[in-house]
# Entry
Amino acid sequence: MATKKIDEKNTLKYAVAFYFCTLGKINFMLGNKMYQHIDTVCDQREDGRGFNTCEVVYNYKAQKYEVLNVDTEIGNKEITILNN
# Structure
């Protein structure tokens, strides 16, 4: 079975690095959930081995704020930006 090739420019990791830092509040879809970008936080690890990139979002379906760790597999998932 062939896997769908995901364009790197349509991933959450790319959007956090290049779109969300320059634009205001952005709505986007990740799977079947709609989120709104609130803020991006770069957190330094306690042991000095680098940084974690965390995306603070509002989940419209759950109606609460959430934090997505962009450095995990979720950062490579495809998103659809709804407005900018």
Remarks:
- The CA atoms of residues 25 and 76 lie 21 Å apart.
- The chain has one helix and five strands.
- Residues 12-18 form the longest helix (7 residues).
